[in-house]
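Aim 2 progress update. The chain analyzed this quarter is reproduced below.
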Amino acid sequence: MPSLLIVEDEPVLAQNLVKAFAGQGFDVEVAGRIADARKLAATRLPDVALLDFRLPDGSGLDLLAALVREDPELPVIMMTGYGSVADAVRAMQQGARDYVQKPLDLNELRLKVEQALRSRRERREISYYRGRGAAPGDILGESTTTQRLRTLVARIAQMTPGAGAPAPTVLLLGETGSGKGHTARLLHASGGRRSGPFIEVNCTALPENLVEAELFGHEKGAFTDAKAAHAGLFETADGGTIFLDEIGHVTAPLQSKFLNVIEEKVVRRIGATAGRRVDVQVIAATSRDLEAAVRLGEFREDLFQRLSVAVIRIPPLREREGDAVVLARTFLADTCRRYGQPLRTLSAAAVETIARYPWPGNVREVANTMERVVLFSDENPLPAEDLALPSTVPPEGAIRVSPSGEVLIDFPDGGLSLEAVERALLVRALEKAGGNQSAAARLLGISRDTLRYRMEKYGLVE
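Predicted structure tokens:
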């Protein structure tokens, strides 16, 4: 919910403004004096401020300067009954977004406030990697499984209203590379919140010491490096959607905070004494078996239940008969265009190989394979050997994870070294986490201290 600060010393006018904007869904606070406004702003800076030029205890321009110092992006609209060109120029020079003259035209003022709020949201969004480029295309594939998935996604999107109305929480379940991120972007782009921001958060990539500040924001001076107030990702997503990817691997304290935000729709910045209402749709995704994690006590059951309002399972590519070939042809054409190469086709042998291969890396593996062949092969039609796909028979001693999350081991006749397996798991987790030890520990379901101990045991500490 966007917040509005009204600083106006005429009680009747102030109450009329409160009534008008509260009815539009704003969280409104009002002050009749500069001193009162400073106290309110010190507790919580608003998203937009309406500020009278002349107040009983000083000039509105002085308060304007103080507000803009705290938040240079704060849109302030000045109101005056003694307007002059000089006043307007001074206000704009000191950081005001706009000004209006009394008696106020309420429709004009509403329009200015809405424009200011929209502009603020856009600036926040740009600064936080909005949108990942163009709007996502549809879910590719012709299998019955994919058709059912498209129907389900379209239904949830159709049921999602615009900003200001409650939106369903969605949980996307699927293996790595199956298209959970694409599905989340499609849900946002097709739903009622499409004009709002889409903020994507990789829960395993956030540094542990900064995760709370990034997600929930902080006030100026909240900690050593907090030189200015900072809106968190939940606030940035206000009016739109926040996508919490790999939520199944977050720590217990963060699970608790997510539960509170999803239930109450309120975030509290670090260093703040009051919460801020946020109007966001939450879409979460994970490749982990959350029910198993709940049974093991590694994931909160109440958070799992809260996330499971609308559950969409993204099937792995091996369950989508014929779709791998459709995807391969599409990715091959897209990659050729991206690199300025002539369009190419797949040979009959390549089509057969693609259809037979199980694609353990799912859609992402298809995309990467097509990019690789465009970069390293000039053949047209593309021969099967240029795909360079590994054998479909797992090597002796292979370890893999089933769709249900069960660990499967093809135990070799000669046996396995437990220490070698453990060391390999540590190395692979660290590689997948980009060297981030906290993220690697979460992937393995152990504490960071345990990870460090085992890294030292196997000589993996530099």
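The chain has 18 helices and 16 strands. The chain has a mean pLDDT of 86. These observations will guide the mutagenesis experiments scheduled for the next reporting period.
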